[in-house]
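I need you to check the entry underneath: sequence plus fold tokens. Let me know what the token row says about the fold.

>
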Amino acid sequence: MLTGREAVARTGIDAVALKPAECDVSRAVELPLDRVTIDYEGRDHLPDAATLDRVAAETELYVTTPVRADGFDPLGDDSLVARVPDAARRVLVAGHGAYLTDEESSRAVAPRLGAARRAAPDAWVGTEGVERVALAAGGTQFELLSRSTDRDVRALRAAGFDGEVAVYAPTVLTDDEDAVLDAVGAYVARRRPVARALPDGDSDDAQPTDSEATGRAREVLSAAARDFALVGSPETVRDRVADLREVGVDHVVGYPARGIDEFLS
């Protein structure tokens, strides 16, 4: 039986994304991959400078920095930028509304993304919700895996885009359908096309999106898990990663949706 490290190594993904609210990100140095991204989950969960320094010393570290958030706003308070080690690279994103105040959410993205790219020209640029702005800003385009990723990347390459493309995907290394839905069911249910396809999607009654889902809902969620996440055996995931590279994806970033231990056990 494969260990977690061996399984991850077989998948072909080349980076791991960690959420500091879920795990001790200093454990990144134990992972079998050298490239690590740390997601932003609010100022309270931002790792301290010493932790980031330690991880950056042993990995190729990327730190997600929302350009509208106080502390990372290149047109305002950018005091937290100093916490990011010189050896690390930044991932510039508009920022998830769950981690921004109303005031921060109201700030214009385009001028801030442009200013941040000028300050950090080697940064990756998150495209979620700001695809055209991100493309105009340039740099490595960092996208969430979706059912249109293959088509979108082919179109970018056909149009002459020769920059790098990175894709982020929750990753579950098992064929156990209940485990898959427990790990990513709620995530895929939030994606707009999936929410529309789910039965009673407009109802006020919350429907199960995990292993308790049944019938049509379970069918929709199971299919969506393959569209919006990397799930299955290491070999199954490896084949999907190979498909992504074939259409022009340069980097595949896997988020361990069942926890960091699945990638380390």
Notes: The radius of gyration is 18 Å. The chain is about 35% helix and 15% strand. Residues 215-228 form the longest helix (14 residues). The longest strand covers residues 165-172.
